Amino acid sequence: MNKELQAKIRKQVADETVKHIQLWFTDILGNLKMVEIPDIQLDSVLESGAAFDGSSITGYAEIEESDIVAMPDWSTFKILPWSQNHEKTAFVFCDVLDRNYEPFEGDPRYVLRRQLKRAADMGLTFFVGPELEYFYFKSAAAPEVVDEGGYFDVLPADLGNDLRKQTMRTLDKLGIPMEASHHEVAPSQHEIDPHYDEALVMADRVMICRLIVKEVAAHNGLHATFMPKPLHGENGSGMHVHQSLFKGKTNAFFSADDEHHLSDIAKGFIAGQLTHMPEICSVLNQWVNSFKRLVPGYEAPVYISWAHRNRTALIRVPLYVQGKESTVRAELRNPDPGANPYLAFAVMLAAGLDGIEKGLELPPAVEPNIFKMDAGEREAAGLGSLPNNLYEAIRVTEASALVREALGDHIFERFITNKLNEWYEYREQVTSYEIEKYFSVL
Asked: Whole-angstrom Cα distance, residue 272 to residue 275?
């Protein structure tokens, strides 16, 4: 770390009366973790990071190899906006290192860094723009909605709309540019959209956005959740991700000569994601509950396809607007906001780059509503489907050389084990559905 940046951090901590600094990182499932240091430890952490025991962090280290180091990425240093003036708290994202100060293979941020370097070696930078959907409920005890609104509704004196505004203002104070916010389709469902940016920057911002949404809700006596499908019979929450690759300041997805204005790079990228989607699905949709959302009838994709206008497709390529070359992009629609953004963006990029490197051919676009097609029509169109549940998804992932390479052996093996254990635990549950359907009649 250069002396100039060290001096800048020291000055900001002193000038802003920062008394506590939270060192942030995630486990392999995307749960935010932190160790907090007092300001008097700043000099030590600036030089050598903070050592901690990783044996209790999901997917990290075994007890005999548990000494790891949180090394702050000081470019991400920010002061929490609700801090008291006389004793502020700041946070900084960390790269996790092993005891030899080498990148720790269990660090999801390192996984994404590796794939971004792979793209950089090809002269490419990966940009993403996620749409974060979530619900507000009256408490964490039960999913009781706080509004009955629908898509883009304006609800007078609606608490959910006010919470969205508070959230956007708080994110603005943190220097996170936002595109928009609005009410979503389901009752009490909302969406916020961070401004398109480089993938590592955006993965950090997704973690911040999820925290701020929950904090603002809690400060107002409510509970916010990014659970993909909390309400039966209503749309679930997705995290549609708009993606593009740039060469310098030029959008590598754009071609002036192509009928659809898609370059060969864009076509290979989309073809790669379509080809590898069954393999990467468990990383984009990593919970048992994720697959309750991915069913026909609730605006979530089920079949592996791409299109321009068709929002039932897995990947949507918005129609090109003359003079807007930079906006040519591919919107991947199956990820959900419960995913680990570092791992999700990493496998999305890995699949896309594989398609580019292998020159995979992009199949024809599917513009009709896929949910109105019968099985014969879908078969004729060559449409495969996403896995039906977490178990199916994880078994496909388990056999994937692409995902193993993208995640690395350490995270790959622990992720598979964790998800299989989740499935086995779920399989043993006796649900209220079963009690209501069978208990009195069998």
From this structure: 5
What is the average pLDDT value for the chain, to the nearest integer? Answer: 92
Structural contact between residues 347 and 403, judged by C-beta atoms closer than 8 angstroms: yes
327, 318 Cβ separation under 8 angstroms = yes
132-237: CATH, from 3.30.70.1890, 3.90.1140.10, 3.30.2130.10, 3.30.590.10: 3.30.590.10
Residue type, 142: A
User: What is the crossing angle of helices 199-219 and 341-358, to 10°?
Assistant: 150
CB 315 within 8 A of CB 274: yes
The residues carrying an active-site annotation are 53, 131, 133, 184, 191, 240, 311, 331, 333
Could you tell me if 88 and 80 are in contact, meaning their C-beta atoms sit under 8 angstroms apart? yes
Superfamily of domain 106-128+238-442: Glutamine synthetase/guanido kinase, catalytic domain (3.30.590.10)
**pLDDT for 316-352, tens place per residue?**
998 877 878 888 999 999 999 999 999 999 999 999 9
In terms of Cβ atoms closer than 10 Å to its own Cβ (0-12, 13-18, 19+), residue 435 is exposed
Whole-structure pTM value: 0.95
